[in-house]
Amino acid sequence: MFDYTVVTNKTVDEAIRALEQTLSNHKFGVLWKLDIPTKLMEKGIALEQDFRVLEVCNPDVAKKVLTRNQKGGYFLPCKIVVYRSDETLKTHIGLLRPTTLMAMTEDERLQALAEDVERTMVQAIDEAK
């Protein structure tokens, strides 16, 4: 599976605030937040679903990735999505698994780093839900 996703009763905004705190507790920061419906509306396209993308990073890990194999930088920063599902009517928090991405580099040193990052990010998501 390429993702790790949990469901929460929190609103999208509440889930993002909780994520920011739990990620910070694990030395990850949110570099950027994209509100997709707002961005699409700037182009005249309406999207009724609340869908956000957070790009998150641990600077120490990013440096390790880039000094071991610059192609690992293609997968930086990590992405977490937070959205209100039309099907469940609940908020979903999902992670694109770093292990899946780094496996494409075929570099075992990066894979070990990705496993550590994924474990930490899954824990932060679980704590935030």
Automatic annotation (TrEMBL):
Classification via InterPro entries: DUF302, TT1751-like_sf, UCP021774
Signal peptide: none
DUF302 domain mapped to chain residues: 39-98
Organism: Melghirimyces profundicolus
Record-given protein name: Uncharacterized protein (DUF302 family)
